[in-house]
Design goal:
- It is a single chain.
- This protein has one domain.
- It starts with a helix and ends with a helix.
- The chain is 86% helix and 0% strand.
- It has three helices and no strands.
- The protein is mainly alpha-helical.
- The chain is elongated and about 60 Å long.
Length: 105
């Protein structure tokens, strides 16, 4: 039972951290804190998929019929998959940008 409670708590934390990505992204447009917003956005964009993967490794083997656990599992999947795709897109765009800059030299 304590493992189910921990899984639900960790899933809630993943969800809260995912919302922080949106806040950090919006801070990128505020002149005084735009640099901090950019750094926070990139850090959270890496942290959330890592947290989701950690959640799946640690808790996916739990066998229970509890509604809270099923909801936690859906939450982590619904957050982890799209944000991982966004992270991969950012990394691809970064790699394309780097190679185009290096190709101009």
């Amino acid at each position: 039972m304590s493992k189910v409670n921990q899984a639900c708590s960790d899933a809630s934390f993943v969800k809260t951290t995912a919302w922080a990505i949106l806040v950090a992204f919006l801070f990128r447009f505020v002149p005084i804190v735009s640099g901090l917003g950019s750094v926070a956005f990139l850090a959270l964009l890496v942290a959330v998929p890592a947290m989701a993967i950690r959640w799946w490794i640690k808790f996916s083997g739990i066998s229970t019929d509890e509604a809270d656990f099923r909801r936690a599992k859906r939450t982590v999947a619904a957050i982890g998959i799209p944000i991982t795709i966004v992270l991969l897109a950012v990394l691809v765009l970064f790699a394309v940008g780097i190679t185009s800059v290096l190709g101009r030299r």
